Protein 1
Amino acid sequence: MTARILDGKAMAGEIRAKVAAEAARIAAALGRPPGLAVVMVGENPASASYVRHKTRSTLETGMASFEHRLPADTSQQDLLALIARLNADPTVDGLLVQLPLPAGIDSSEALAAVDPAKDVDGFHPLNVGRLASGLPAFVPCTPLGCIALAKKAHASLAGLEAVVLGRSRIVGKPLAQLLLGENATVTIAHSKTRDIAAACRRADLLCVAIGKPEFVRGGWIKPGATVIDVGINRVAGADGKGRFVGDVAFAEAVEVAGAITPVPGGVGPMTIALLLVNTLSAACARAGLKAPAV
Ligand code: NAP
């Protein structure tokens, strides 16, 4: 058996085309393009690459991009002052602070300083609480992408045994909340889980976000299950160059699963596409316009 490949790149392309059309409609109504501000502190190369992608995608879909790069030794006070300025800027609809922040910065305080109405990453405690309460909220983009990809394989997620491996606040926890909202039966496994392989084998829908290259083996997957691999890990390739692999041993898993996301080209492109959707939603909500049709 060979699994169906859930092509996140293609799906993200379709979403971005709709985003561009909606951005034009919203820009006409606002008299300015919807705007996304990204704040990055320090020189983390992976973060710099994500920020470049976000900026490019924002501009390509006709939105305004405001990129703020601060040196690694920026003080907490200066970061909070910039966030306050962007909160007050009427041309900024969405505002995100790229993680991780340097060791000297209190990330929780920085995330809580973002106006919840501009919090397109969904990391503000108010949005976290609203999601957990089943209320409308800004939801982190990576878990939203996981749900959209899972729905490519399943008309409904209701009643599925869903196992989420990883409990970070940016992926695992919000993904588990979304799956509960879809009426799946949800198990969250993590580094203290006693028998991870057994937990994985229960899953009709297995979502993995742990940051460990090819950790989940083919033998841990229930035949026919859907596998959503969030991991992005750079490893040395046979040719000596770096290459990216997921948290799932793809070559093994593809022989057992019913459907699987590739790495790269699965969850990653969906994350940025859904960030653009969240930015449009923020622009519409702030201006009292109809929500974007994406
Ligand atoms: P994280 O904050 O480091 O959290 C990792 C989670 O995995 C933790 O909950 C940890 O458990 C768990 N874990 C670690 N080792 C484990 C093990 N051996 N067995 C079971 N659980 C284990 O990571 P993250 O930010 O969620 O990211 C996870 C992966 O997704 C990374 O590869 C990251 O690059 C990728 N990612 C991709 C996207 C995208 O757009 N595609 C977005 C975000 C992240 P404890 O809580 O017990 O420590």
Note: The mean pLDDT is 97.
Protein 2
Amino acid sequence: MPTCTINDVVCEFEEGQTILEVAHDNDLEIPHYCWHPGLSIVASCRICLAEVAAPNPRNDGKIETIPKLLPACQTPAGEGQIISTKSEKAVESQHSVMELLLINHPVDCPVCDQAGECGLQDYAYRYGNASSRFEEDKIKQPKKDIGPHVLLYSDRCIMCTRCVRFTREVTGTGELMVEGRGATESIDVFPGKALDNPLSANVIDLCPVGALLDKDFLFTQRVWYLKSTPSIDGLTSSGDNLLVEHNQGEVYRLKPRENMDVNRWWITDEVRYGWHFIKNDDRLLMPTLKDGEPFEDDAADEAWEVTEAAALDGLQDAGHIAALISPMLSCEDAWHLGQLVRAIDPHAVLGVGPVPIDGQDQTMLDGFVIRAEKAPNARGVRRVLDALGGNIVDASGFEQALQDDASIAGVLITGNYPSEWVTPSLQQAIDGGRCVVLIDTLPNALVDSADVFLPAATWMEKAGTFENATGRLQSFQQSVRPKRWCKGESQIAMDLLARLRGETAAAFCDDQTRKVMSENGLTEMVRDVHHPPAQDIQAESDMHLIVL
Ligand code: FES
């Protein structure tokens, strides 16, 4: 393999790699703004300029320093090159670039959402000057509302054009452009056109400074308070890798987590903003009994005790039962619910809940796919239920079974959808004097008629595994505790099963569950599950607060 030397470190590389890519592969930092691995190279910001010495074939291969500094993001690595971004000339260039970039920048870090994760701020410390020589008036640019999710603060922009290239090279929608030239050039939307495409908010992540900001996150939290927990898209079948960013039990935003095998660097706006239902005011938080008095807030333990006993009695008394396992649940949830149902009635009908489909899959220019299937784990739930054996049906088969078999006297229904999901036909099929136990999160047509309602935790409030549209099994971690008195479906099922067996319930553990599943025929639940890389786990800011 050819080698080059970057800042005194000998690095192997593959033909065609740029100096910046080789540096990245070897954990060496070269500053960069306009370069992004998912976009074309324009080499416009010049912060990556490096001093390069290379063998000169016209001088017997003698190593000679190239007089001009070269952009590391655009220059191919070559055998025997000696590259420095720490030489006097390179450092002087970095200082000049930072000085130029900051000339018209308002330096309004105290009120900027990007502070704490700003490339300009970081590089100003590492590669900039301590003071500015610029005393003239700065050019002021307007703030603009350029789309449903994005605000543009033009005077913070450093014209890296990542956002413009994203709309041209990834979404193909081309809403953004560079307007003007020279000192007054700026990013803008075309007249009458909003930045409104299914991936529009990715430009916020791409912006290395605070020029493109997220309306949804604006002024809600300083980023250094946020903790990041690796997770998976819990709303669609994409399996997109995410970071859930939260503080003190509150989720504030979702960010894409790079995974070249799944979502590359992006997530859809639908996934990025679709999580808000977890803190809806109408979220159902307390177990209830039909016709029973509502439980007081300080009686949650009693509420769970009474309702779980009623749920178990109702299903046991029914004798023959059916259960609808939602595709919004994890494989582990499906496993524990299946164990419970089969323990109550070995011949129970098990169904996979309705799988919402919206249009067709849409493939972006770079291969990123927006999934039409709006449930994260239809395949995983089906896989687990199939492993349990017996009568496994889809949602319409479940309705049919209820209509055809009057001996089914009890039903266990799970939901956890982000919006109303109960169809009139399902409601009608369930009716008929059956005992109904509903485990769900939001109000829907079944809540009032259910004999027992048990409040469930959403996917961010529990750990588990989803299988995406391509059959990839991926685990996700619990980001925040379940809201108020809610519990994960696995825990509810384990509690009910322990009650049935007269045992003490154990606390749910996803690793342990996967192990048990593997020992019971689902070997892939240990062998094939992809786990998030360790370095992403609970990354905390290294900033310290000083109380004055
Ligand atoms: Fe190389 Fe911008 S990162 S010129």
Note: Confidence is low (pLDDT under 50) at residues 536-540.
Protein 3
Amino acid sequence: MSNQEQNKFLDISVQFVKGIGEKRAQALNNAGIFTIRDLLQYYPRRYLDRSNITVIRDLKMNDLVTVVGTVQACGVQRGRKARFVLMLSDNTGRLNCVWFNQIPYWEKKFKPGQIVAVSGKIGYFGGFQMVHPEFDILSDDEEVSMANFYNTGQIIPIYSSSEALSRVGLDSRGFRRILNHLVKNYLSRIDETLPKRILSQMKLLPLQEALRNIHFPGNLTLLKEARRRLKFEEFFLLEFLLAYRKKKIIEQEQGIAFPDIGDRVYQLAEKLPFKLTPAQRKVLQEIWSDMKKPHPMYRLIQGDVGSGKTIIALIAMLLAVENGYQAALMAPTEILAEQHYLTFKKWLAELDIHVELLVGAQKVAEREEILKNIVSGKCHIVIGTHALIQEHVKFANLGLIVIDEQHRFGVAQRADLKQKGANPDVLVMTATPIPRTLSLTLYGDLDISVIDELPEGRKPIITSWRYSDKRKEIYKFVKSHIDAGAQAYIVFPLVEESEKLDLKAATESYEVLQNTIFKGNSMALLHGRMKNDEKEAVMAAFKDGEIQILVSTTVIEVGVDVPNASIMVIENAERFGLTQLHQLRGRVGRGEKQSYCILIAKKPASEEALTRLTTMASTNDGFKIAEVDLQLRGPGEFLGTRQHGLPEFKIANPLKDGKLLQDARKIAFACMENENDLNFLLQAVKKISFYQQFKHNLSLMRIG
Ligand code: ADP
Ligand code: MG
């Protein structure tokens, strides 16, 4: 069959499949199943076989089990409360299943002689029973019989259903029938999606065999192989698209080449008060090798808090300037933009580089002047917040953009900044370490550089958590360090929904602390509602050591760098997410002093909060923390809706199938060099609507 016809066949509406009429088609559509392809990809939720069912003789109280038996009798029992009872027998004993509601529905559903699988918790009421079990009627299915089940080791697929689907006969059994029909009659019409070479290299089942065995496994080994093949395919086609997009960028997109290192880069290197770490040097090398090329750079720098990303950005930007271009850095908060501005000014002072700051809160005249300098090209480097992407900001020749704490920005904002230049190079930085397997799917088309070590001489931060009844001792401890010359942050939570209350709590606590334990110490309060110059003044005074204790809301969460500050107290720590706690803690441990982070939690803290607190106390490793956070929240939440561009995998799981994902990626990228594979795969990808959908997400995700 030609591709064209095959395409048509898989795209046939479910309505035309034998056994599915208009009503069922409607219910399927509502559940997101439109075509034959969707049906074939409606993989079983689980399977029944001898190995995962329990015989009635072996039941124990409170066990969670699946039992398969024949309906001996069923009917309504009237009593204090009417119930529907289903009596099952499996030759080793009897089990009652009980439903208390929708009795007429159950009366219609069950009849003696049926073979039924039930799953649930074993209770006791004059004998073992299950209340409101999950069930699946197995009989009337072709070839399912108790004898088969026990003697031949038959494996039966169980499909998810819903009330709406069940109502039109599409319970698990209904799906089984339809898929049985499809697999029996149409499988031979489905073309292979992967090149033969890859099938044999990875020892994968052909697609037809995989589909047959995922729905009706010949045996457990074949089932495993089927799953592996289908997972691989999902990963592979995704990675193929990522690789292909990357190839296109490299081959076709015209960008800017920055061929010269320039004297001032060397001058800066000499001036630096520290030596770059090997990891920083490696990353710079990677950036430099991108920047030399006449194609746009798309590079992500991952580096834990405090690993020294700013200086990397600075050097890259200086490189752009040395080649006659402007560079811009966008940061998520004004405090951070301001701080970067001061750092850049300090390091670039003697190099005759013109640096400007552009944030929302500047006076009109000042802003006019800055904008003029940017558009005329007088200004070489601009640091700013999202004020940078406003329409009236125009550059003379923007060659490089850097986005700090990129996870704080939306895709559109990153793209908007890129539009300010003619295909400038793009560098995005993040301290949220995304586990590698996830970054392969999320950022698979970006080049990734990792700063995997901290500067020398940093001592691991000592972290502990206490309930608030220990607050007094904690602050005594803080006081003793302050009096010995340390500086501290005390952080209060502030969330949008309860902003007013939170701010009030922080302000009141600030006053109490100032008038009691920290009487005589210099303190200041910092929050987002303060005027810009007030914020600036406070930050500057804290940086200069004039302020010993900074009481703050989460405005200092990202990026703030005051190396002498070595103590962090976080109040109401149970309210913070894990990644957020880690970011906050990253404000200390930036110098040579031993640093401490103390988390104060209100009693009682939830189970999940306890996990967060103990995780924080047990490790400083951002990657480990991210893994736990990911497990607690799941990928969608963890990544946030803003940049959630992940495809919905039907069967693969990037967290669990990491090895397969990496294999898929390697092979997909290698295919770019092979004309035959490439053409074959481009044909294959076109046919799969799931990837069409993802292609759309890709262009949203991309940095411009
Ligand atoms: P982050 O990666 O969290 O953005 P920063 O760039 O703010 O980290 O750097 C943290 C601190 O470490 C800064 O004070 C910076 O000057 C300093 N720093 C950066 N690189 C080095 C290095 N190689 N050796 C010593 N200190 C460094
Ligand atoms: Mg930073």
Note: The longest strand covers residues 64-77.
